[in-house]
Amino acid sequence: MPGTTAPAQNPDTRPAAPRQAKMKSAALGRIEKLEAAVNNMDALSQEGYSQISAIATLALLSLETPEGHHPAHIETLAVALAAVRKIACDIENCINVTAEEVGLNHKDRRSEARLKARREGAGQRCGAICRDSRRDAAG
């Protein structure tokens, strides 16, 4: 009818298309972040594990020669093994941080439970110490 206004739309009865478009956009953004994270982890692992493999190969080859068993070369092998350990720790940390950034890092539930118990125990001990020191100060 002329002169009448259309009733206001209830937000719950609006067309779903704008909400779906927003959800689709958010999902695409999440997928892009996940793709970037996987790509980054792949690059980190390729570089780090290639370095570890190369160092280990050289260390093993050195042990296949009489010179590789000379006492003077033991320190060289120790340095090589320390480098392997450092690379492995660095790559582990980088991959973990990358996974954390997208909320997909591994969580060891039992380890987390132990950490929580340790913190609670420390908090209880601190509380007891504080109560004892207040009592000593008051008494």
Explain how this protein is built.
There is one protein chain. This protein starts with 16 loop residues before the first helix and ends with a helix. α1 packs antiparallel against α2. It has helices at 17-63, 71-101, 109-138. It has 139 residues and is mainly alpha-helical.
List key phrases describing it.
single chain, 139 residues, mainly alpha, 3 helices, flat
Short description:
The protein is mainly alpha-helical. The chain is 78% helix and 0% strand. The protein has three helices and no strands.
Radius of gyration: 30 Å
Number of H/I helices: 3
Q: What is the element string, with H for helices and E for strands?
A: HHH
**How widely separated are the two ends?**
87 Å
Structural class: mainly alpha
Count every beta strand, where a strand is a DSSP E run of 2 or more residues. 0
| Average predicted local confidence, pLDDT | 85
User: In percent, how helical is the residue content?
Assistant: over 70%
Q: Catalogue the unreliable spans.
A: none
Q: Which of globular, elongated, flat, extended, rod-shaped describes the shape?
A: flat
Q: What can be said about the biggest beta sheet?
A: none
| Beta-strand content estimate | under 5%
